[in-house]
Amino acid sequence: MFESLSERLGGVFDRLTKQGALSAEDVKTALREVRVALLEADVSLPVARQFIKAVEGKATGASVTKSVTPGQQVVKIVHDELIAMLSGDGPADALKIDNPPAPILMVGLQGSGKTTTTAKLAKRLKDREGKRVLMASLDTNRPAAMEQLAILGTQIGVDTLPIVKGENAVQIAKRAKQQATFGGYDVYMLDTAGRLHIDEVLMDEVQAVRDVAQPRETLLVVDGLTGQDAVNVATEFDEKVGVSGVVLTRMDGDGRGGAALSMRAVTGKPIRFVGLGEKMDALETFEAERIAGRILG
Ligand code: GDP
């Protein structure tokens, strides 16, 4: 088990004399502990450094009120700064899906949870916003993935584009757009193929699909447990295809959520949703408060 940051800091400050304001020395000592906590939570080193710098400026000289210990004061400053960095600007979950049919492009590596997330999001749009959604799998290399989306569609009561053998991803995207237009759908979701690693073939295909579909939203699905890798994947996808938001999956696992902070700090992209399990309703909007709590332990 991890020791929580509050516990760590409690120990540090017990050894220091209590003062009316946090001294530079106190802050430095405390921030060493904060740094360890961030790294344990899988925040990348450059982001941890950047974060510590921001906090150092705010904490040095901050007055310690009678009701809190210096440790609690530092935790509060760290907590507030985490929220500020994680939440960025404005509500993250409002998807741009006016002017029907609105295309949503789902991208990510194989195994990240892309197909599952596509179905979860479709269900959410249907149940919560009353949208008519059409889902299409573009994964021509893996017939099983296409079948999987069809099965999930039946399970959640969302239509999927019929599978036609021999079509390429761009042809499927065009057919999805047609069916969504003539079928009166509000949204159509394109579940693109993933690969185990980023490669040129994959990126070329996703770019071609993007150019045809002109997506209103391009959501990148990444495994939240993969830490720094998740950030690298996001950077690449954003450079090559442009990403409007991120979905972090497997946040029901043991991870401490540091990937969220790194993701936000490095890519500047909002995290829109988090996946919290395999079930179709295990998708929640991203809440900075909850992730901050998790990182702090
Ligand atoms: P894809 O290859 O990216 O389309 O990945 P899939 O959607 O097929 O998901 C791969 C596996 O991860 C499946 O067994 C999913 O049930 C599981 N999965 C997806 N999202 C989550 C999540 O948020 N939490 C957990 N625990 N499992 C997930």
Characterise the protein shown here.
Helices cover 51% and strands 13% of the residues. The protein starts with a helix and ends with a helix. The chain is built from 11 helices and 8 strands. Strand 5, helix 9 and strand 6 form a beta-alpha-beta unit. Helix 4 packs across helix 11. The chain is an alpha/beta fold and 297 residues long. The chain has an 8-stranded mixed β-sheet, sandwiched between helices. Guanosine-5'-diphosphate (GDP) binds next to helix 5. Keywords: Coiled coil, Cytoplasm, GTP-binding, Hydrolase, Nucleotide-binding, Ribonucleoprotein, RNA-binding, Signal recognition particle. Part of the signal recognition particle protein translocation system, which is composed of SRP and FtsY. SRP is a ribonucleoprotein composed of Ffh and a 4.5S RNA molecule. It comes from Thioclava marina.
Task: Describe how the helices and strands are arranged.
Elements: H1 5-14, H2 24-40, H3 45-59, H4 70-87, E1 102-108, H5 114-129, E2 133-137, H6 143-156, E3 159-160, H7 169-182, E4 187-191, H8 200-213, E5 217-223, H9 228-241, E6 245-249, H10 258-267, E7 271-275, E8 283-285, H11 288-296
Parallel strand pairs: 1-4, 1-5, 2-3, 2-4, 5-6, 6-7
Antiparallel strand pairs: 7-8
Bound molecules: guanosine-5'-diphosphate.
EC number: 3.6.5.4
Family: Belongs to the GTP-binding SRP family. SRP54 subfamily.
Protein name: Signal recognition particle protein
